[in-house]
Fold this sequence. Notes:
By secondary structure, this protein is of the alpha+beta class. Helix content is 28%, strand content 22%. It has eight helices and 14 strands. The chain has helices spanning 28-41, 54-68, 72-75, 109-119, 123-151, 161-165, 240-245, 300-309, and strands at 21-23, 44-48, 85-91, 96-106, 172-178, 193-198, 204-209, 215-218, 224-226, 234-238, 255-258, 265-272, 279-280, 298-299. The model is unreliable at 1-16 and 324-331 (pLDDT under 50).
Amino acid sequence: xxxxxxxxxxxxxxxxxxxxxxxxxxxxxxxxxxxxxxxxxxxxxxxxxxxxxxxxxxxxxxxxxxxxxxxxxxxxxxxxxxxxxxxxxxxxxxxxxxxxxxxxxxxxxxxxxxxxxxxxxxxxxxxxxxxxxxxxxxxxxxxxxxxxxxxxxxxxxxxxxxxxxxxxxxxxxxxxxxxxxxxxxxxxxxxxxxxxxxxxxxxxxxxxxxxxxxxxxxxxxxxxxxxxxxxxxxxxxxxxxxxxxxxxxxxxxxxxxxxxxxxxxxxxxxxxxxxxxxxxxxxxxxxxxxxxxxxxxxxxxxxxxxxxxxxxxxxxxxxxxxxxxxxxxxx
Length: 331
């Protein structure tokens, strides 16, 4: 069953629309069809009855709240993000800025253990909270990807999920903190931008936020749709790699986060990514004479390098579109 979200307020650049909300406790074949439709139409949906416990979610949220409440001098000890660690306002390496601070961590347990020493006064407690959250979100991510495989009637239903389950997967976790804003005057029609318009380069992103609004997705017609917050559900985003592997059938949704609330917003994202040496290309099941391959093969390492070389809002997939001369992309 798809449940429309409460309708947001309309303005010149936003549109009131029902966001797909999918109940993962329903019949499996029905869920698979609903997810595929949402990925094609929006590149985005919410899931409820997802199986990740409130305790696991609450522990990581508590660690995030505690860290961001520290004095700036203490938080800086965990940075600068390069890309992992603590960052404040700087997004990436090419001049993009936002009204936020964040922690970015690789999901490798050894990396988390090392990073936790500069993040928390109790590194073991922090590491356990992060690792338990990652385990829960990885399972949810793989379950959704296998449902997509089923909904697309792929011969190999695990073709996406096994990239995430690979021991060398390059998945990351990010905790964003958007401080409360007391006065939004002078920031323009949208107010301050916390995280600018972009798509996610990975296969699939799963986001959970507190009860503060700010997230928006962009429809095909360019209009922005506010996503009502609900701490009990997860938001799921199609990433660039999944769009490429499905030969454009799934949409890598462009989205942004506004930071115009009088309450602080905290969001936690799991980015499911393949190993660096994994090759990404349209699956044979997704290619035909009527629908030729839209993208040339590339490794995740190549694509990640391209992502780091571009501005936040650039369309990275354009660099890897199939062309007539067959030239290799130079990065």
